[in-house]
Each structure stands twice: as structure tokens, then as C-alpha cells.
Amino acid sequence: KAGVTQTPRYLIKTRGQQVTLSCSPISGHRSVSWYQQTPGQGLQFLFEYFSETQRNKGNFPGRFSGRQFSNSRSEMNVSTLELGDSALYLCASAPISGDTQYFGPGTRLTVL
Amino acid sequence: GEDVEQSLFLSVREGDSSVINCTYTDSSSTYLYWYKQEPGAGLQLLTYIFSNMDMKQDQRLTVLLNKKDKHLSLRIADTQTGDSAIYFCAESFQAGTALIFGKGTTLSVSS
User: Fold this and answer.
1) Which of chain A's residues have a Cβ under 8 Å away from the Cβ of B35?
2) With a cut of 70, which residues of chain A have pLDDT below it?
3) CA-CA distance, A32 to B97, in Å (whole number)?
């Protein structure tokens, strides 16, 4: 089975812009979660989508949003980018009855 | 509150055993995980344990859980240079989502 894929792998944006990141889960997985990884804050949970509905949410401002499509692919959007949004954004998928998450390689976002 | 603590660095010689420690504060956590991250890569699941277990062994990896002290450890037997990476401990109340991670332990293996 193919693993979790994320596109693009690298992205450079400027302050004030918005960005959309994409994640394709492992085939058959319906849960997709997003995490932000920074040197200062470490790995932090953003939100989880299951069957096109947001099921869990971390403690991030409303500028961070997401959605999931009927094929379980998910997108994450960050509006009005700030320098502090520079991070590695990781997507993870989990099967319906699974106990574990499988991570993609991440999208490295740099905000200038 | 929710917090996962790990020591930041561990240095071992090739062939030795490595023990990476983690403490968590929320006794409601049901699942406890160990992930490995190599430079420029995502997270690789190594192993996990349910909170009602004390120990789990998987080839060179042994996970020990002390629920009373909220302490989790990962032992890597016969550590190899390819084991050099950052190791993250994580907890979750719900299977397969909303993981709370520690800051990671950098394991350096010298030959």
C-alpha cells in the first residue's frame, strides 16, 4: 500500500498571504489529522477530520482551517500568514478501527 | 493538564542498549506511542502500548510502562548507527488521533 502523501513538499510564502496544503491518506483510511512541528513548540495537534467532519481540534487560531473530501483526501488552509507559521506541517491517517496514526513526509512552509 | 516530558539527548556506543525515558501527566491517556524521526523526514511509528499493559516487546524494542509513576521507556537493544534519530513519546485519549507529543530525544550512536 502506498503511504500518506503530502503536496507540495516545500513552500515559500510571504506574510499576509494564504496557503493550502494537501494530504492523501493511506487507501482505506478515513481519519486524517494535521500537526505543526516547530523548533520552539515541537509537535502540536491542529485538527482531525473523519468522514468529512472535523472530529477533534487543537488549540490554534481560526486562521488555521481544514476540510476533507469524500475520498478522504484532506486540505489544510492557513490565512493571513505570519512569520511564526513557518513550520513542518505533518499529516497522518488512521484506519477506522485503528489504534495508530501513520504520518506523511510533511510540507515545509517558510513564511518570509 | 497534559504534558509529556523527555530528556533531550542520549549518546551511546554501537552495540550497547539505549533507554529513552518519558513521563506524562494525564492518567486518562489510553494509548502511548513511540515515533522515530530522521532528518528531513516525517514520523515513523515504532511501537505503542495500551495503558492497561506493563510491557511490550517487538524485536529489538521493549516498551515498559509504569502507570503509578506515569513513566514510559523505550529500550533499543544492540543499538546501531542507523538508529541515530529523534525519538518522540506521545500520548492520546483516543485511538489514532490527537496525539500529544514530547519534545523528542535525540539519540546519537557512535561506532
Assistant:
1) 103
2) 1
3) 8
Taking the C-alpha atoms of residue B50 and residue B94, their distance in angstroms, rounded to an integer, is: 11
A103 interaction partners in chain B (CB closer than 8 Å): 35, 42-45
Flag if B99 and A99 touch (Cβ within 8 Å).
no
Task: Work out the mean pLDDT of chain A and round it to a whole number.
Answer: 94
C-beta separation of A44 from B98 below 8 A: no
Instruction: Identify from A24, A43, A51, A91 which residue to disrupt to test chain B contact, counting B C-beta atoms within 10 A and taking the largest count.
Output: A43
Instruction: Kindly report the three-state secondary structure assignment for every residue of B26-70.
Output: CCCCCEEEEEEECCCCCEEEEEEEECCCCEEEECCEEEEEECCCC
Q: What is the pLDDT of residues B25-36, one digit of tens each?
A: 777 777 899 999
| Cβ-based neighbour number of residue A68 at 10 Å | 22
pLDDT for the residue B2? 58
B94: closest chain A residue by CA: A99
